[in-house]
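Q: What structure does this chain adopt?
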Amino acid sequence: MPGPGPMLVKIAMLGDSQVGKTSLMQKYVEGTFDDDYLQTLGVNFMDKAIDLNEQEVTFSIWDIGGNRDFASMLPMVCNDAAVVLFVFDLSRRSTLDSVRTWYTQARSHNKNAIPILVGTKYDLFVSLPAEEQSEITSRARQYARAMRAPLIFCSPCYSVNVINTFKVILIVLFELGSGVPEISVVGGPIIEYTPSSTA
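A:
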């Protein structure tokens, strides 16, 4: 459990362009979703304070543009991060394959941050053929296992697992025990974060 006094938890968000990093951050912090795509140029960050067992915890969420031109800013985003969200688009498999590169780069700057694999655009994923959903889920689980990371499917557009993503961060970071029901059915909004489910 966190100690006395306010606590700052830095969260880095990495992933390709247009996977929904900024949308996830804005939906969680401000409760808003913008249909118009605006490319993140460089780095964005937002703070959100929450109460955890009568203690204030502030999430400082850092979002870096997915364009490789911004690679020089990776140290600023990754350094001191307690958690790194590796974000991919559930409807574009190439963005999941890119996670391997993002993971390698992040680890070169921060070897201790807890990794979490987050698939966005669940609303598009559910319209894919069942076979494709199964393939993507299987591949995402392979990546999560290799990274020893929780796996979460979300949709900022429809508020699916947005809050749960950040609840899982707290659970894993502070070893709080299971406070969010896990969902493992293929085609469902996956939440897998205990060792038995991601093993």
